[in-house]
Amino acid sequence: MSDDVVGYEDGDINKVSGALPQSVLEYVAKAIVDEPDAVVVETEESHRGIELSLHVSPDDMGKVIGKRGRVAQAIRTVVRAAGAAEGVETNVDIVD
Prior knowledge:
- The chain is an alpha+beta fold.
- The chain has a domain of about 60 residues: 2-Layer Sandwich (GMP Synthetase, Chain A, domain 3).
- It has three helices and three strands.
- It has a three-stranded mixed sheet, with helices on one face.
- Strand 1 and strand 2 form a beta hairpin.
- Helix 1 runs antiparallel to helix 3.
- The longest helix has 17 residues.
């Protein structure tokens, strides 16, 4: 890498912020639902970090939320941990 680019170390330029939490959310959601092709993860950067919106088919909504929201909370915890590994605050919303 040339010396005229200041503040970047080798490999930092192609890093996408929030790519790991987004990939983890998509992987986990597709493993849980009956219709993995219907899983869509939208990413939005905010002042607080990365906001991920999970869209699944209406028939799979119960599987993603779980009894008393336990599956949803577990998903949020795992995705938050993936974000922390990247050094980014991550929030997951499950959208109808």
